């Protein structure tokens, strides 16, 4: 079973960071992809588990790949498509693409290429290999409800506090807490945050024992206040405007990486591999990527699908063809001499022990039906 929890140093040394994307920009890309999944899921009436599973796939995927290599909105659509299958709420790929077309601008939707369905379907295979086919994901929702049922106090205040904690769990999907801590710890931290903000102090709870100093000691052992406060601060940072949020939302070159993309675009992709990454990327170094303005200004040529991976044109420019029917005639070129015809080779007679068994020596009898065999 792979380990899907990472330390802070791992989050600072992602493939995107090694590919030149700074930490704040990567955080913004993760927020944009997660919020796109939540908006698309809400538009398609998908449950919270399906949406949360898609977001967790999204965060795990970019621990192995760079945002410069895989467009985040194509990846988000693919994660939601796969999560719908896993959580038994499947949606057709064309419906997800149609929803994405309505949520994204023309510039952002351009990253889907000429055949968006082919892009999503091709990326699904890469996604499955990246997450090592570990499809089942646990979320803090079930633990939040379980823990809340054990708390005692004013029912109205308790219900308000639980609703606030539920909203915090939804918002936490835009952060990386789901790939840093287990869902039990996240549920405890966000209940703790909601109780502080709603001024609901938990004093009594079901199953309280003398050794339990805090109410969460009976559910999660050895969790420190530093961990809970770290989770709370990451969620609260979402509500603070940052410089990355106020800066113009410029995306990296959104080049489709799959076989559905044009070959001239795919040649400019420089994937970053790690020691834990599946062997699905090109290992040879590729030329640097062109500036964003140059790439996005060029029209997207017609793609080549996976059914035709062999490109019918050479990698070099073809010489111009001479004009036909215009200008002086082409110079006469002497052809090489033709080899004169050679006489046919004669028949060669090979002796055989049974050569004279049926016919006498000499020429063959020809078509004489009365020639008796010997």
UniProtKB/TrEMBL annotation:
Subcellular location as annotated: Nucleus
Q: What is its main location?
A: nucleus
**Gene Ontology biological process terms, A to Z:** cell division; positive regulation of DNA-templated transcription, elongation; positive regulation of transcription by RNA polymerase II
Q: Which GO terms describe its cellular component?
A: cyclin/CDK positive transcription elongation factor complex; nucleus
> Pro residues bias: where?
250-260, 360-374
According to the entry, every stretch annotated as the Cyclin C-terminal domain falls at 138-272
What keywords were assigned to this record? Cell cycle, Cell division, Cyclin, Mitosis, Nucleus, Transcription, Transcription regulation
* Gene Ontology molecular functions: cyclin-dependent protein serine/threonine kinase activator activity
Cyclin-like domain segment(s): 35-129, 142-229
Keyword Transcription set for record:
yes
Q: Where is the composition biased (Polar residues)?
A: 270-279
- Region feature (Disordered): 243-290, 345-374
Would the keyword Nucleus be found if you checked this record's keyword annotation? yes
InterPro entries noted in UniProt: Cyclin-like_dom, Cyclin-like_sf, Cyclin/Ssn8, Cyclin_C-dom, Cyclin_N
- Spell out the PANTHER family in the cross-references: CYCLIN
Function summary: Regulatory subunit of cyclin-dependent kinases that mediates activation of target kinases. Plays a role in transcriptional regulation via its role in regulating the phosphorylation of the C-terminal domain (CTD) of the large subunit of RNA polymerase II (POLR2A).
Q: What protein family does this chain belong to?
A: Belongs to the cyclin family.
Name of this chain's protein = Cyclin-K
* Organism per entry: Anopheles gambiae
Name the gene: 1277948
